Amino acid sequence: MSIEQAREIAGAILYEGYLLYPYRHSAIKNRQRWTFGVVYPRACSEANGGLDSWTMHTECLVAGQSDTSFDISVRFLHLLTRSIAEPALARSQAQLADECASRKAGNRFLMAGQLAYEPWEEGIEREVSVLKLPLRELLAQPWRTRIAFSSGRLVEYPADPQQPVITREHQPLLGAMVITAERVHGQNNIDLCKLGVHIENSTPISSATSERRDAVLLQSFVSTHTILHVYQGRFISLLETPEEFQLAAGTCQNRHTWPVLVGYKGQQDTMLSSPIILYDYPQIAPESPGTLFDGTEIDEILALRILTLSDEEKAELREGDERAREILERIESLSPEQFMKLHGAIRELSLPDDESRHVSRSSPLAPIQGYAGKDYAVPDSLRLAGKTARVGNKVRLHPKARADAFDILLAGKTARIEAIQQDFENRLYLVVTLDDDPGREQWDERVLPGHRFFFYPEEVELLEG
């Protein structure tokens, strides 16, 4: 089941940002897309000093044994240019070819009666997989698999000669997936290993192509991600790493991607490594009626906005991208009951216990001793490990709650206490600003502090001086 869930999550990521509200080609926000998980051609990357990476690299920990094996799949979108020409009845096939070439070169609109058409980028799903790859073989030597997709061109001639002709064309892609494994510890039996998946794009391009972003993207791997499944073994979380594996987890290098566990909570046989940072066991809301190409947005808001589009805007959707047309038809067919499900849902409900009425059971950290029972005035100082901490003191951050990705990025950084605050459950927080925040140099820190972060008192270490 975890493989199916991984593919469901991966499918949402694959088309993240594919087409954004208001889902029209003419919208400015839809003129430049494909910003997630792009693996560019090597020649392009080297030409711009490595700013655009030509590789993606995943490393994770796996506990295995002599018969452990893997299914590993690399998935991405292969972009194609979709061109729409005026009705075939109006001209010959030679004229059609000339106009398509002219439009592609200049990226101009082509007038057809009262309609204006322009080239558009769509995506073909590509996948390269290695199945039942034994861990023993990987420990002996790396496994290299070629990524190769040829160019192609498809012309759709309508049955009705008054309808436009659609041409889809894609460029060749060339690259490789390299899978490695090394033993972290263990002698006779395979115990803990580091598994690596390296993706590279070696597609040859011309110097003229490297200077045009739209042309480069046609020969790039877009929305690239990796699905890893283990047999007779288990993956180790890099987010909630058990103490005995933390040293090994710190050696894992992930570039332009991040692996998380996928499936039902507690399962450890599948990982998804994606360019979008997720938590372990991400889920798609069961209330969602379908993809909206924006997994971080609220379905209800987007659905209501789609219904407010004018008739002219909806007509542009129907005449444009097929996936956008499907979104419009789906939203317009939603029943009132389905809309109500989008308004909100309670996943878990836990009641506080008698000993800590001000903190719910779901709180990841224990309540602060001495402040329970009733509302109280916010103190001007706190005791941290037997020492008094006040506004202005320097601290070192040690996040424990795993509230978001910043808890990984901020670990070990030094900061200053800007304020002590409380929430409606009488929980105390330290409000801090980072010492290395460049924004702090642009204004008076005391009047207008930089980016502020909230930490539980037990997540900070008071520094001397």
Give the beta-strand count: 21
Mean pLDDT: 81
Helicity range of the residues? 10-25%
Count of helix runs:
12
Q: What Rg, in angstroms, do the CA atoms define? A: 27 Å
Molecular shape: globular
Tell me the distance between the termini. Answer: 54 Å
In percent terms, what proportion of residues is strand?
A: 25-35%
Structural class: alpha+beta
Number of domains: 2
Walk me through the structure.
The longest helix is centred in the first third of the chain and has 14 residues, at 93-106. The protein has 2 domains: 34-284, no CATH class; 381-462, SH3 type barrels, CATH 2.30.30. The strands form 5 sheets. Strands 2, 5, 7, 8, 11, 13 and 14 form a 7-stranded antiparallel sheet that branches. A 5-stranded antiparallel sheet has the order 6-9-10-1-12. Residues 103-116 and 350-373 have low confidence and may be disordered. The chain is built from 12 helices and 21 strands. The protein has 465 residues and is α+β, with helices and mostly antiparallel strands.
Summarize the structure.
The chain has 465 residues and is an alpha+beta fold. The chain has twelve helices and 21 strands. 20% of the residues lie in helices and 31% in strands.
Annotate the secondary structure layout.
Elements: H1 2-14, H2 42-47, E1 55-63, E2 69-85, H3 93-106, E3 110-112, E4 115-117, E5 120-134, H4 135-140, E6 143-149, E7 152-156, E8 165-170, E9 173-185, E10 192-201, H5 207-210, H6 213-217, E11 222-231, E12 234-236, H7 246-249, E13 258-261, E14 270-274, H8 299-307, H9 311-319, H10 322-332, H11 336-341, E15 381-384, E16 387-390, E17 394-397, H12 406-409, E18 414-422, E19 428-434, E20 452-455, E21 460-462
Antiparallel strand pairs: 1-10, 1-12, 2-5, 2-8, 2-11, 3-4, 6-9, 7-8, 9-10, 11-14, 13-14, 15-16, 17-18, 17-21, 18-19, 19-20
